[in-house]
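We treat protein structure as text, and this decision shapes the records that our systems exchange. The tokens are whole numbers drawn from a learned vocabulary of local backbone shapes. Below, we set out a record of this kind in full and without editing:
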Amino acid sequence: MAKVDVSAYKTFDDITERLDQIVGDVRDKGTSLERSLDLFDEAIALGSKAVEMVDKVDFSPKERAMLEGDAAEKDPEADSADGGTPATESNLEGSN
């Protein structure tokens, strides 16, 4: 499998737009199995790029406070699946 070049996709909107196109192409009955597998490889590469983009997000203190406030407002008892500390960017970084 050759590495798929996804460098042209710079934003989440670009990535999701291309993924929508891929879904349409794969659903098309005229798309060959070989082409579908190539599209699958491209979709995986796009997903990986999206994950990298998320990992690189640098929130401002104001944005971080807003995100943490939103999480606490939704359900203060369910901050995490085990009832422990809230899932914040700082304690998620080590979970990769």
